[in-house]
C-alpha cells in the first residue's frame, strides 16, 4: 500500500487524528516529530538534535538504535515474530525467565509474562486475590498501599494509585476501594522515626483479615511525585506483612534494572517481596513487555486448587521478539559497567542540581541513583518550559511542580553537562517568568 499521507501533510493529519497521553487532542501542548534516534539523541524532522533526558519514560537505558539489540531483533524476526503462549512455548521466553530468576532474589522463581507495566500490576493483584481464594480465605480481597503512589492507568492499577493527588480522581466511583496509608516521609535510615510507619501499622493490624496484599513502589515513588523514602520503611512493611499473613507486591516497573543504583530497589532494604512486577527497561525500550515473578508456594497453591489455573492470559504475552530483545538487553546491562555509569550520573546531578536548592521557587532537590528531581513551589507552564528545553537542545518532560531527568545509562559526561545545564537554565527562566 502506498503512503496515504504526503510528506508535507502527515503532521497536519496527525495533529487532528492521533491522541497523545495526558494531553488534549489538539493544540494546547507542543508535540515534536522525531525521525531518527541514535545513542542519547533524538533527531527531529527539522534536523534539530535533542539529548533525551527521559530515556523514553525510564525504558531506553542503553540509548537508541543499539547494534546489539538491533541484531537480536533481526535474528528473532527471521525465526518468528509472534506465536500464542497458550499451549505453545518458545526458547526466548524460557531464556528470559531463566535470566530473571537468576537476577532476582530467592524465592522468586516463577515467571508470568504480560505485555505492559499496568497489566503486570493487574496480574499481581489478581494473583494475590486468587492465592487467598485457593487458601480458602476469599474475604482477603483488598489491597493496602501508600499515598503518593502510581501503578498504572488500567482500572485495577488506578485503584491503588493515590486517589487524591494522583491522575485518576475522575474514576474514583468506578474503582475498587482499597486502603491507603500516609506516604513515608523519612528519606534516610539514619533519620528513621517509628512514627513514619505508625499509620501503615494501624491499618494492617485493623484490616489484615481483608487484605490480600500490600503493593508499593520500593524506595522510589515515581510518577506519583518522584519521592524517595528510607529502606527501613520497606523493612518494616515486610515484617508487618509477615506478622499479619499478608502478601507483599513490589512494583519495580520503574526502578528495576539499575535505575536507583542497585539492580532492583528492594535490594537497598535487603527484603524480598512475594510478588515482583517488572517492565519498562526490560527490553531496553525496544518494545512493550513486562513480567511478574512470584514464589513456588504461590504458583503451586493457585495451580492445585480450583480452577487449577491462573486466570489471566494476554494475547501477546511472552512475545518472542520482545523476549529475544529483553535477553540481549539484560546481558548488555549485566556485562556493562552500569554501576559506574549510574554513579557518574548521580555525581553530575549533585554538581548541577544541588546548587539550585537555594533558589527562590525551588522547594526541594532530590537525587537517587540515575534520577534527578527539581521540585518547584508552583506548577510549571508545561507548554512554555517544554519549548525552552527543546530550544536548548534537550528533551525533558516535566509534570506538575516536578522537573526531573533519568537519562540513558550510556550518556557521556559531556552530554550530561549539556543536559543539566539546559535543565537548570530553563528552570531559572521559568522561575523568573
Low-confidence stretches: none
Strands, count: 16
Sheet with most strands: 7 strands, mixed
Rg of Cα set: 22 Å
Assembly state: single chain
The geometry reads as: globular
Along the chain, the helix and strand elements come as: HEEEHHHEHEHEHEEEHEEEHHHEEHEEH
At the first level of CATH, the class of the largest domain is Alpha Beta
Mean pLDDT: 96
**Overall number of domains:** 2
Can you characterise this structure?
With 433 residues, the protein is of the alpha/beta class. It folds into two domains: 152 residues, Aspartate Aminotransferase, domain 1, CATH 3.90.1150.10; 266 residues, Type I PLP-dependent aspartate aminotransferase-like (Major domain) (Aspartate Aminotransferase, domain 2, 3-Layer(aba) Sandwich). 36% of the residues lie in helices and 17% in strands. The chain is built from 13 helices and 16 strands. The strands form four sheets. The protein has a seven-stranded mixed beta sheet with strand order 4-12-11-10-7-5-6, with helices on both faces. Strands 1-2-3-15 form a four-stranded mixed beta sheet. Helix 6 links the parallel strand 5 and strand 6. Helix 4 packs parallel to helix 10. The chain is globular, with a radius of gyration of 22 Å.
Short description:
The protein is of the alpha/beta class and 433 residues long.
Salient structural properties:
16 strands; alpha/beta; Aspartate Aminotransferase, domain 1; 433 residues; Aspartate Aminotransferase, domain 2
Amino acid at each position: 500500500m502506498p503512503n496515504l499521507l504526503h510528506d508535507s501533510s502527515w503532521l497536519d493529519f496527525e495533529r487532528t487524528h492521533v491522541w497523545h497521553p495526558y494531553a488534549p487532542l489538539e493544540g494546547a501542548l507542543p508535540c515534536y516529530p522525531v525521525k531518527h534516534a541514535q545513542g542519547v539523541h533524538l533527531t527531529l524532522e527539522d534536523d534539530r538534535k535533542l539529548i533525551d533526558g527521559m530515556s523514553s519514560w525510564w525504558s531506553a537505558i542503553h540509548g537508541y538504535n543499539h547494534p546489539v539489540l538491533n541484531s537480536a531483533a533481526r535474528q528473532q524476526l527471521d525465526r518468528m515474530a509472534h506465536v500464542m503462549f497458550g499451549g505453545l512455548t518458545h526458547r526466548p521466553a524460557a531464556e528470559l525467565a531463566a535470566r530473571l530468576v537468576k537476577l532476582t532474589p530467592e524465592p522468586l522463581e516463577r515467571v508470568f509474562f504480560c505485555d505492559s507495566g499496568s497489566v503486570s500490576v493487574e496480574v499481581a493483584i489478581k494473583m494475590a486475590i486468587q492465592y487467598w481464594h485457593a487458601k480458602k480465605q476469599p474475604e482477603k480481597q483488598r489491597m493496602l498501599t501508600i499515598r503518593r503512589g502510581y501503578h498504572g492507568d488500567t482500572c485495577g492499577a488506578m485503584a491503588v494509585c493515590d486517589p487524591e493527588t494522583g491522575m485518576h480522581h475522575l474514576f474514583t466511583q468506578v474503582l475498587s476501594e482499597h486502603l491507603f496509608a500516609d506516604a513515608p516521609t523519612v528519606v534516610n535510615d539514619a533519620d528513621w522515626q517509628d512514627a513514619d510507619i505508625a499509620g501503615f501499622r494501624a491499618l494492617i493490624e485493623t484490616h489484615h483479615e481483608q487484605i490480600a496484599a500490600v503493593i508499593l513502589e520500593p524506595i522510589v515513588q515515581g510518577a506519583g511525585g518522584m519521592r524517595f523514602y528510607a529502606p527501613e520503611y520497606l523493612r518494616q512493611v515486610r515484617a508487618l506483612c509477615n506478622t499479619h499473613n499478608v502478601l507483599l507486591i513490589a512494583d519495580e516497573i520503574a526502578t528495576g534494572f539499575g535505575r536507583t543504583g542497585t539492580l532492583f530497589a528492594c535490594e537497598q532494604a535487603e527484603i524480598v517481596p512475594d510478588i515482583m512486577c517488572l517492565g519498562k527497561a526490560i527490553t531496553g525500550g525496544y518494545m512493550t513487555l513486562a513480567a511478574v515473578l512470584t514464589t513456588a508456594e504461590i504458583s503451586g497453591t493457585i495451580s492445585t486448587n480450583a480452577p487449577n489455573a491462573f486466570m489471566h492470559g494476554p494475547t501477546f504475552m511472552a512475545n518472542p521478539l520482545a523476549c529475544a530483545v529483553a535477553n540481549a538487553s539484560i546481558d548488555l546491562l549485566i556485562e556493562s559497567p552500569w554501576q559506574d555509569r549510574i554513579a557518574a550520573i548521580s555525581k553530575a546531578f549533585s554538581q548541577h542540581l544541588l546548587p539550585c536548592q537555594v533558589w527562590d521557587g525551588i522547594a526541594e532537590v532530590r537525587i537517587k541513583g540515575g534520577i534527578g528531581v527539581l521540585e518547584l513551589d508552583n506548577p510549571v507552564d508545561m507548554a512554555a518550559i517544554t519549548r525552552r528545553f527543546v530550544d536548548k537542545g534537550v528533551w525533558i518532560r516535566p509534570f506538575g511542580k516536578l522537573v526531573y531527568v533519568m537519562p540513558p545509562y550510556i550518556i557521556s559526561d559531556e552530554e550530561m553537562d549539556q543536559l543539566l545545564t539546559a535543565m537548570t537554565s530553563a528552570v531559572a527562566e521559568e522561575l523568573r517568568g
